[in-house]
């Protein structure tokens, strides 16, 4: 079996590549870095949206979203992400499971808005069990924060690259 590939416009592409200057490369690197910074900001903004889209409880997830610059031979990579172990469960949601009730009790206490008179210790436990039961039947809803930020940053970068 023989495969033949014909490239059209090769000479024009090579000519354009030869015209790229150091200034053009620096502009490209700046645009990519700006897109990474934009992506990080959008991811933090997405996490901090009001309920039900957002996912701020203690602020740990939002504060952990960072950029890491990796410089290699003839390349620069920017990694945007988080190191908290529960981030994928926020981004993608979960299947039904029975979560630890003690952790939910702490969540209920934080979200009772200081109304100790409304929730005694037994009431807090009951509310936590009710939430755990619901999660055991439905799972948790995805609250995407990083993927939508990446899509926005990618589109912004493509628009910036078209200007070059």
Describe the structure.
The protein is mainly alpha-helical and 164 residues long. The protein is 57% helix and 9% strand. The protein has helices at 10-18, 22-47, 60-64, 87-92, 101-111, 121-138, 146-163; strands at 66-72, 75-81. Strands 1-2 form a two-stranded antiparallel sheet. Strand 1 (66-72) and strand 2 (75-81) form a beta hairpin. Helix 5 crosses helix 6 (121-138).
List the helices and strands and how they pair.
Blueprint: H1 10-18, H2 22-47, H3 60-64, E1 66-72, E2 75-81, H4 87-92, H5 101-111, H6 121-138, H7 146-163
Antiparallel strand pairs: 1-2
Helix pairs in contact: 2-7, 5-6
Shape assignment: elongated
- Unreliable residue runs: none
Number of strands: 2
Percent of residues in helices: 55-70%
Strand arrangement, largest sheet? 1-2
How large is the radius of gyration? 24 Å
Sketch the topology as an H/E string, one letter per element: HHHEEHHHH
Query: How far is the first residue's CA from the last residue's CA?
Result: 42 Å
The largest β sheet comes out as:
2 strands, antiparallel
Mean pLDDT: 86
Number of H- or I-type helical stretches? 7
Strand content: 5-15%
Give the helix/strand class: mainly alpha
